[in-house]
Amino acid sequence: MSAGFKFTRALEEQIRHYASFPQTGVSLQQMVQFGSTPSQGVLFKASQFISEELPIRLAHRVKELDELPNQLNEMPSIIKVKNWYAESFQELTSLPKPNLPDDIRKTLKANGNGAPRMADNTPNLIEQETNSSGVSTPRRKSVPLSKRYYGPVQDINWPPEVLSYNEKITKTLTTIKRRHDPLVTTVAQGVLEYKRLRQRSQIDTSIQSFLDRFYMSRIGIRMLIGQHIALNTEPPRPDYVGIICTQTNLKQIAQDAIDNARFICEDHYGLFDAPKVQLICPDELNFMYVPGHLSHMLFEVLKNSLRAVVETHGVDSESFPPIKIIVAEGKEDITIKISDEGGGIPRSAMPLVFTYMYTTAGEQSLDPDFAKSDFKAPMAGFGYGLPLSRLYARYFGGDLKLISMEGYGTDVYLHLNRLSTSREPLP
Ligand code: ADP
Ligand code: MG
């Protein structure tokens, strides 16, 4: 937290107010349609959208952290996280809006050239209203978001106010993204503090569902921010719109995940050769996705399978049964099945595998250095691999399921929705 930040009464009230507005979900397809011609005018509209939507989402999180039950809201790490959200909220809401000439306002309002429109069923948004003493308060505005901010934009010579506003908000977003990097580990730390205080070994269902909502919201916020920063700062790449790849090649991402997971496995167990992974996947399977999300899920699932195979058959085993990845392409879904012969999971443990911090890899402390970066798990031990991967899958309308045959092995089904029209789940 920067030295200047203070959680004032006024800020608290402003946050409560913003939290009373509904969040607005965006689909993968909308993000792609919108960002495919990122002129300064389009970027300006995106800036306006994010400068209203993000404070609403942040405010919801502050409120939720505040209202956590059983003193979980009083844990030092949880308060720390809450302050990050409040500070980011304050930074965004105190960015001055640009003063635009009338003709530019009109152009921004006009629905000119044929860029695609976003769906119109978005909830009301807020508009700043400044009173005579210069205090601005948001109020409801019943114009669909799509009309106001995601409509098409004519390409003209934008005045310097527009360009500098785009730059300013991108800079602010970069600061915010960095501030929240260690969120997953810090919240995990907060839950550990709570478990210690309450002398619990497992987390209860209310905390589990809080964490699901909280981390899901983080995925959405980071998606919006990441997309915005990429559109504003990165040179256009073929097949990419921001951080979304319209031609994500599944085979290539899977092969990279296999190589990385096997490398970590060899390193961790001191193996010369990790269990083999067979990949059955059409070469030309390309679809629209965020490659980073896909790698994350495959990497986590593969590490689990590798660990199970190595530990079931013994590190000194002459050979290991291979792990099989089969990719199927349907009209609705692309499904990836990862099958291992790693002994499976007892049925009694099945309800636990998707709970945060459930692991059979032994107690692991949260290294403070480790917490500085974003959450990157080693071989195993944090119990975040499966629950977080499932959230990534669900974020774009997919799912992750696990079926085990105790005494034999495990099948993980990763379903990815290829229609990409489903809206973000907004907790
Ligand atoms: P971690 O790997 O850090 O323990 P995960 O969320 O990835 O956390 O997995 C949770 C637990 O689920 C693992 O510790 C393990 O006991 C069990 N598990 C997951 N995948 C498999 C698998 N393929 N075979 C056997 N057990 C598994
Ligand atoms: Mg794991």
Automatic annotation (TrEMBL):
Tell me the enzyme class.
transferase
Q: Which reaction does it catalyse?
A: L-seryl-[pyruvate dehydrogenase E1 alpha subunit] + ATP = O-phospho-L-seryl-[pyruvate dehydrogenase E1 alpha subunit] + ADP + H(+)
Sorted keywords for this record are:
ATP-binding, Kinase, Mitochondrion, Nucleotide-binding, Transferase
Gene Ontology cellular component list: mitochondrial matrix
Biological processes annotated in GO: regulation of glucose metabolic process
Against SMART domains, the record matches this protein to: HATPase_c (SM00387)
User: Sorted alphabetically, which InterPro entries does this protein's record hold?
Assistant: AK/P_DHK_N_sf, BCDHK/PDK_N, BCKD/PDK, HATPase_C_sf, HATPase_dom, His_kinase_dom, Sig_transdc_His_kin-like_C
Q: Name one GO molecular function term.
A: pyruvate dehydrogenase (acetyl-transferring) kinase activity
Where would I find the Histidine kinase domain in this sequence?
Answer: 294-420
Q: What is its EC number?
A: 2.7.11.-
Gene3D superfamilies membership: Alpha-ketoacid/pyruvate dehydrogenase kinase, N-terminal domain (1.20.140.20), Histidine kinase-like ATPase, C-terminal domain (3.30.565.10)
Q: Where in the cell is it found?
A: Mitochondrion matrix
The UniProt entry's sequence similarity note says: Belongs to the PDK/BCKDK protein kinase family.
Q: What is this protein called?
A: Protein-serine/threonine kinase
